[in-house]
Amino acid sequence: MGKKIKSSTPMKEIKAEIDKPLSELISDEIYELLSSHGLINEKSVRDFQIRKKFQQLRDSKVSSGDATVAIKKYYPYLQLETIRKIIYQTKTPISKKNNQS
User: Fold this and answer.
1) Were both Cys, which of 11, 34, 57, 78 would link to 67 (CB 3.0–4.6 Å)?
2) Whole-angstrom Cα distance, residue 38 to residue 33?
3) pLDDT at residue 2 tops 80
4) Overall pTM > 0.85
5) Residue 22, Cβ neighbours under 10 Å: how many?
6) 33-68 as b/e: b if 16+ CB within 10 A
7) Residue 71 CB: number of other CB atoms within 10 A?
8) Dihedral angle computed from the Cα positions of residues 56, 48, 89 and 85, in that order, rounded to the nearest 10 degrees
9) What is the CA radius of gyration of the chain?
């Protein structure tokens, strides 16, 4: 499947991002505070991390198949097809209802 990935480097990067989710957006302290109050959707954070890591691997010329397999090593409870759905899902815009009376 495409270009072989170096097993140590991408895996270490994935592990670091899993340990500190959203660290580039908010501080770890704020994340912990929000999480302790139940204000973080863990599944959405996981999906965000998966999409971000996939894009980083693809930008470094790793094939999509190899990138998906690399991500699966950190999420063994997810099927490859589920990871693909997360990676390729598109967000549908919420349509505003017309409030004309």
Assistant:
1) 57
2) 9
3) no
4) no
5) 17
6) eeeeeeebeeeeebbebbbebbeebeeeebeeebbb
7) 24
8) 80
9) 17
> Tokens standing for 49?
């991390």
Task: Report residue 11 as tokens.
Answer: 């895996």
Instruction: Report domain extents, the chain.
Output: 8-88
Q: Are 57 and 70 in contact (CB under 8 A)?
A: yes
pLDDT in tens, 37-91: 999 999 999 999 999 999 999 999 999 999 999 999 999 999 999 999 999 987 6
Which residue is associated with the tokens 């999509």? 64
* Per-residue tokens: 33: 């505070």
Q: CA-CA distance, 62 to 54, in Å (whole number)?
A: 9
